[in-house]
Amino acid sequence: MLKKIIILTILVTSIFVVKDVKAEECNKKVGPGKQYPSIQEGINAASINQTVCVYYDTYNETVNINKNGLTLLGMSNNQGKKPVIDGEYKLPKGSLLEKGDFPSGTSYGYVRYALVTFNANNTTLDNFEITRSRGRVLLANELSNITVKNVAGSNSRKNSSFLRVKNLKVINTSLISTNNFAPFTRDSNELSWGAAINTRGSKGVLFDGLIVAKTWGEGINPLFSSDVIVKNSVSYDNWRLNMYSDNIINGLFENNLSFHTEQRPKGMPKSDGMVLRVENAAGGQGGVESGNVNKNIVIRNNFFINNSTAISTGKQNTNYKNENIQIYNNTIINPEIKAIQFNRGDNDTGFVKGNIIIGGIIQGSTGLNIKDNLYLDPGLVDAKAKMTPGQTNVGNYKLKSGSSAINKGPKISGLTKDYFGCLRDSKPDYGAYEFGGTNCDRGNGTIPTPPTPTLTIQDPTPTPSTNNKYDVTGDGVVDIMDIVDLIKYIFR
Ligand SMILES: [Ca+2]
Fold first, then answer.
1. Which among 175, 308, 401, 476 has most CB atoms closer than 10 A?
2. Domain count, the chain
3. Spacing, Cα 298 to ligand 1 middle (Å)
4. Cα of 430 to ligand 1 centre, how many Å?
């Protein structure tokens, strides 16, 4: 008995030692029984380059990260729950954005508030759940070196995030809507769109390990940006489209899963898996000023399952270009309309090779080299299987032993791994999956799972956003804040 107590004492002591070591990295502590009761008080007390640790609790406040080099670190409780920033659809109120202005010619000036707003460079947000924002989840404008990781964002009333940053990293993060407040119309301003993550005018973007789902608008939505990587991410049931490339210079979209389930709001169509669009640059975007081009875009090792069209393109002006688009070794399963659709007469350039395409055709443009793709089921585990909400397992769409796709794919420069990060052998297979691939850096058939929201508070009846032109703040009421925002906007 005494021995057990001693062992237990040692165990408990060592646990506390571990905790203390971790706690020493905290310059300021926020939470029940800590130095500061609110997150903002902790940030206000911190110096530059410090770490503010936020212990598990629910915080009904807006957060302004306004100290250079600050890390805001959520400390999970013993059950692994992250601290929660909950706006209860009442917060934020007014504007928290101090840094820079939004691109001219857009309506973004009206939506300049979020539950967490970055107003300083070299800052990190790590390990939070952020939910029920009256505005956005995250906002950063004209900043550099911003990192967001391990964040579970859900149910914001506006676009989940607007991040206009030089050197932006968003890692292991989810943005999911289960309540959509905006009307699904595309003829109004951003309030009606509800996209998940928007990079308008960023340079150096890494999206790694995202789950983005169920927004009315675009899911993973880089636009007017350069040097963009979107990988290891899952995007599903976003009702405008799952992944976007609009005016991107140098984009790599790899190892992603884009799909639609059979669950959809009444009357809603499935949307496209990925869209290469070139729309008018509104000017002053930051990353890509006036390219009117998608250029040097690689789309490889992705699974596109049951989308409307898996990969499509669209342009506001036929002179705009998709230039050097490389679409290879994707697995495209049963799109409703087409597998890949470019506009026939356009002078888009690039190639489409090594893809497995089941149940759809490719419509190319004159400059697109389309060859060495497989158009029949080469022997997948179960190509007819449907995806379900939240599913990240693509085991049904792997090649079976003896598949005719094994070792028959074209050799393409730069193709060394597959969807799971496994090394391909010297005879690459068609599609996103290499049979018998080795040294898998995403594990054998599993992928890291970004956090899902855990908060289970009963939502109030959502107030639909209005299109009232006097409701400048978009909060559904016309009040003094609308006048304040309008004056700020005029004199910005
Ligand atoms: Ca092979």
1. 175
2. 1
3. 21
4. 8
